[in-house]
Here is the input.
Amino acid sequence: MRAYFLESNERETRLELRDAAAPRPGPGQLLIRVRATGLNRGEFLRHGLTKPGAAKIGGTEGAGEVDGKRVMGRLPGSFAEYALMDAADAIPVPANLSWEEAAAIPITFLVVYDMLVQQGGLKRGEWLLVTGASAGVGVAALLTGKALGAKVIGTSGSEEKLKKLTGLGLDVALRTRKPDFHESVLNATGGKGVDLVVNNVGGSVFAECVKSLGYEGRLATVGYVDGVMKSEIDIEALHSKRLKLFGVSNKMRNAAQRGVTVQGFIKDFLPLFASGKLKPVIDRVYDFKDLPEAKARMQADAHVGKIVVRV
Here is the structure.
């Protein structure tokens, strides 16, 4: 089979197309004929998912066929014609979704389900702030927040991207690349602050996110594209406003813990996709041979929504 191997060193991550043997499923695994795969920024960051070392087949999510059935889900090694999926991660693909749309869902919307529902407890009428709102998780958080009945504030350094997000339902658009937005957030919420923050950016805006929270606010840290891994914490605000700070990552979760999120997603979110109430936003679809170009677009931060590769 054809597969793109991803190698990371101290300077960059590189893709190389090679011939490789198709993987063989073990107990509890499914061999998926990959039809499409989604790109995620974390796998291309030097401080992200791909650590320096021997090259391995890239990709973390996808959609494809197994035994005549259409499935999507976490799919390590999805930059290939075949990949292995844990059976517990398999999510049925609704009939109204294309392969490309299905491949744009698993990682981002599973993360968003964990972040907004399981840990964040977002309720109808609450305020949600999404920093770096134009990336995959950011757009998925916006769409899901609106589907749940929340009011959404988003930040981006691009006026053009904010216009696109406003067309997707963004209630308040804040153009900034700096930690200077909390006063605008407070003004938008009548001085109360937001109920939940999605921090896609990292440590450089962490303190500003805390300032943006209202009473019993929750702060989710899901990314750190700025590479800043530390920040001060306002202990007085944490204490007096009864704040909750939490991380969103599968790095240390076991299969059973991940499975709880998958089953919750199937129960609560899959009907929203099947009905059309939720639909992923795809920035651009590339052919398999053009996967390096897709990677370059993601690293240039030129996209709004998900970048997908058709396999």
In short: The CA atoms of residues 284 and 307 lie 5 Å apart. The radius of gyration is 19 Å. The mean pLDDT is 95. Residues 109-247 form a domain with the Quinone Oxidoreductase; Chain A, domain 1 fold (CATH 3.90.180.10).
